UniProtKB/TrEMBL annotation:
<feature type="binding site">
    <location>
        <position position="129"/>
    </location>
    <ligand>
        <name>substrate</name>
    </ligand>
</feature>
<comment type="pathway">
    <text>Cell wall biogenesis; peptidoglycan biosynthesis.</text>
</comment>
<feature type="domain" description="CobB/CobQ-like glutamine amidotransferase">
    <location>
        <begin position="8"/>
        <end position="199"/>
    </location>
</feature>
<protein>
    <recommendedName>
        <fullName>Lipid II isoglutaminyl synthase (glutamine-hydrolyzing) subunit GatD</fullName>
        <ecNumber>6.3.5.13</ecNumber>
        <ecNumber>3.5.1.2</ecNumber>
    </recommendedName>
</protein>
<keyword id="KW-0315">Glutamine amidotransferase</keyword>
<dbReference type="GO" id="GO:0016740">
    <property type="term" value="F:transferase activity"/>
</dbReference>
<comment type="subunit">
    <text>Forms a heterodimer with MurT.</text>
</comment>
<dbReference type="GO" id="GO:0009236">
    <property type="term" value="P:cobalamin biosynthetic process"/>
</dbReference>
<dbReference type="GO" id="GO:0009252">
    <property type="term" value="P:peptidoglycan biosynthetic process"/>
</dbReference>
<dbReference type="Pfam" id="PF07685">
    <property type="entry name" value="GATase_3"/>
</dbReference>
<keyword id="KW-0573">Peptidoglycan synthesis</keyword>
<keyword id="KW-0808">Transferase</keyword>
<dbReference type="InterPro" id="IPR029062">
    <property type="entry name" value="Class_I_gatase-like"/>
</dbReference>
<feature type="active site" description="Nucleophile">
    <location>
        <position position="95"/>
    </location>
</feature>
<dbReference type="InterPro" id="IPR033949">
    <property type="entry name" value="CobQ_GATase1"/>
</dbReference>
<keyword id="KW-0961">Cell wall biogenesis/degradation</keyword>
<keyword id="KW-0378">Hydrolase</keyword>
Length: 240
């Protein structure tokens, strides 16, 4: 018998969904099932009305051109996302959407794409792209594995904390060893790959938070993470 139903809302799956980011949605769906919960996945695309019933919000990376396409709609739903984030809604924003959850992204050609200020950070595009495998460590989630490919370099303000400290690769920028950002129950990261198959601790954090907000308590199921552990070991042994 199902313990409950969690509604996952994927933001802009057409434009913001590269390097396998769709895999994050699949992992949330499958792990919810393993934990004994049903998942309903819906999409928000530019022009759609924003739903009232999302329990978990997720969005991926995209080209600068895709970020330009969705920016107007993102501005329109920005106040809703800000309110939900402040209220403790779990969210996962990867790379291109992570950048736009901040204050702005100034692209390599000087175009300024305004962000929605869910997160206190800003992003500056440069000629050098940061590309390769990343390993980072976090007190909250342990070792985090992923793949990065971005021209924007992100710098965090005082209102957010880094998700993790980079031990291999670059993460937010080429300067400070920070990867990603955290505020309330928002997790933001540059890492594709996708992120959640190799980092089930982050997936279960998002799931637990969504279930607790909706039902009060989360009853985990038995999950076999042998494959995820294997993928983590393999990823960790890869050259940059
Ligand atoms: N277009 C952004 C950049 O290049 C984001 C890229 C991405 O999402 N991988 O920085």
């Amino acid at each position: 018998m199902s313990k409950g139903t969690i509604s996952i809302l994927q933001l802009y799956p057409r434009e913001m969904n590269i390097y396998g980011d769709w895999g994050n949605v699949l992992v949330l769906k499958q792990r919810l099932a393993w934990h004994g919960y049903d998942a309903v996945v819906s999409e928000h695309n530019a022009g759609d009305s924003f739903p009232d019933d999302a329990d978990l919000i997720i969005g991926g990376g995209g080209q600068d051109s895709g970020q330009l396409v969705i920016q107007q709609d993102l501005q329109a739903i920005g106040p809703r996302l800000r309110g939900l984030a402040e209220d403790g809604q779990p969210m996962l924003a990867i790379c291109g959407l992570y950048q736009l959850f901040g204050r702005f992204f100034r692209t390599v050609d000087g175009t300024v794409i305004p962000g929605i200020g869910v997160l206190d950070l800003e992003t500056h595009g440069g000629k050098e792209r940061l590309i390769g495998n990343v390993v980072a460590t976090s007190e909250e989630f342990g070792e985090i594995h992923g793949y990065e490919n971005h021209s924007g370099q992100t710098f965090l303000g005082a209102g957010v904390t880094p998700l993790a400290t980079v031990t291999k690769g670059e993460g937010n920028n080429a300067r400070d060893n920070h990867e990603g950002a955290r505020r309330h129950n928002v997790v933001a990261s540059y890492l594709h790959g996708s992120l959640l198959p190799k980092n089930p601790a982050i997936a279960d954090f998002l799931i637990r938070t969504a279930v607790e907000r909706k039902y009060g308590t989360f009853e985990p199921g038995e999950v076999d993470d042998t494959l995820a552990d294997l993928a983590r070991r393999h990823a960790g042994s890869r050259p940059r």
